[in-house]
Design goal:
This protein has 240 residues and is mainly alpha-helical. The protein has helices spanning 5-12, 17-26, 34-42, 53-67, 72-90, 94-111, 118-132, 140-160, 167-197, 204-231, 233-236. The chain has a domain at 54-138. The two termini are 25 Å apart. One of its GO terms (cellular component) is plasma membrane.
Length: 240
């Protein structure tokens, strides 16, 4: 299926900005300049142009908030339908399927009024994917996605027990949280990266912390721009 939103993004932005946004939103990197691609590798932020769980997380959060007025169950069903549509639209890569399954399991828990267990959702998603296609265990995207998510979940469990009150303490807590989550994700993926690429980026933790806060707004505005611009091109200029 041809993605109709990619030409819309290309019509609004020059290169390499257009390729970067298409990579962030849809995992497309074919038209990205080689020098820019290598720069992403050198700084350890190549993952931002690969479809990841963040896309599903943003989609889930936005849809859930917009449909919450319909009730918990209706909101969960609508959000799950959109997740499935997104996977079918962008392609069922291992990272997206893993994130979609985790998101769906979380929504099922919400639907039935149960507590969501991120670690259990991750393990169940991994088992189901491997039962369907055991060769995924050798897939780099699956390995990095699973391990980084595991690191993030475990870091979040530690963070949840350390919440602070007060503006200054909250700011320090926010910075420490970002650092902890970033380092945790990278520590868990480090063995695979060393084995596959035989190198690591020493500045990767710093660069990831610097860009983390801006990725979500870029995704949200990017999705809005692509959708609105596809419907009526002049209107898409506003968020772009």
């Amino acid at each position: 299926m041809i993605n109709p939103f990619i030409p819309v993004v290309n019509s609004y932005l020059p290169e390499p900005q257009a390729s970067l946004l298409n990579g962030i939103l849809f995992g497309v990197r074919s038209s990205m300049p080689g020098s820019f691609y290598n720069a992403l590798i050198a700084t350890g932020v190549l993952h931002i142009i690969a479809l990841s769980g963040m896309n599903i997380t943003i989609l889930t959060n936005l849809t859930a908030r917009m449909t919450l007025w319909l009730g918990r169950k209706a909101s969960s069903i609508i959000t799950m339908c959109l997740i499935v549509s997104f996977v079918l639209f962008v392609g069922a890569s291992p990272t997206i399927v893993r994130a979609a399954m985790m998101g769906s399991l979380s929504l099922i828990a919400v639907y039935f009024g149960r507590q969501n267990w991120g670690l259990l959702s991750l393990i169940l998603s991994g088992i189901l994917m491997l039962l369907r296609n055991f060769s995924l265990i050798k897939d780099l995207s699956f390995q990095l996605s699973f391990l980084s998510t595991l690191g993030i979940i475990l870091a979040n469990k530690r963070v949840e027990r350390q919440r602070k009150n007060g503006l200054f303490k909250q700011l320090i807590f926010f910075l420490k949280t970002n650092l902890l989550i970033t380092l945790s994700a990278q520590i868990f993926t480090l063995p695979v990266i060393l084995y596959r690429f035989h190198r690591i980026s020493l500045i990767s933790p710093l660069t990831n912390i610097m860009i983390e806060w801006v990725i979500q707004p870029v995704m949200v505005l990017g999705f809005i721009t692509a959708i609105i611009g596809w419907v009526w091109w002049p209107l898409g200029i506003l968020p772009a």
